[in-house]
Write a structure and sequence with these properties.
With 128 residues, the protein is an alpha/beta fold. The chain contains 2 helices and 8 strands.
C-alpha cells in the first residue's frame, strides 16, 4: 500500500464530525475505531481523531458553532451540487455561506463554511 497524505482533524465529538463530512461532501468511511474515523473525501484522506474525554472538559461547543478562522490550515472541498451541500451542511450542524468572501473572484464560485465544531473550510463549485 502506498502511503498518502492525510489531514488530521481533532474533534470533541468525532462521530458527529465524521457524519458531517460524509453527508456534506460525499465522503466515505474507510475505517473506524473508538478514537479514529478515516474518511475518503473525493480522493482526499481525512482522519477525524477523537480528543480523549479527560482533555475535553474545557472545550465548549456552541450551537451554532463559533468559527475558528485563525488556524494555519484550511481545507477546501470541491462539490458538484452547491445547493445540496449547503442543505446537508445545515442539517448536520454546520454551514456553507451564501455569499462568497470579499476577496474571492466571482468566477471561482468559492464559499467559506464551518463544521459543527467551528472548523472553517472552503467549498468550490462549478455548478449552481
Amino acid at each position: 500500500m502506498t502511503p498518502t497524505v492525510t489531514a488530521v482533524l481533532f474533534a470533541k465529538d468525532a462521530s458527529r464530525l465524521a457524519r458531517f463530512y460524509v453527508g456534506a461532501f460525499g465522503g466515505s468511511v474507510l475505517a473506524e475505531d473508538e478514537y479514529h474515523t478515516a474518511l475518503d473525501v473525493r480522493g482526499f484522506r481525512l482522519l477525524i481523531h477523537r480528543i480523549p474525554p479527560h482533555l475535553t472538559a474545557d472545550i465548549e461547543t456552541r450551537n451554532p458553532p463559533i468559527r475558528r478562522e485563525s488556524g494555519a490550515i484550511r481545507l477546501d472541498y470541491p462539490v458538484d451540487d452547491l445547493v445540496k451541500a449547503r442543505n446537508a451542511a445545515k442539517q448536520l450542524g454546520g454551514q456553507i455561506d451564501e455569499k462568497a468572501p470579499a476577496w474571492a473572484d466571482a468566477k471561482m464560485r468559492f464559499f467559506l463554511g464551518f463544521d459543527p465544531e467551528g472548523n472553517v473550510f472552503g467549498v468550490s463549485s462549478a455548478g449552481i
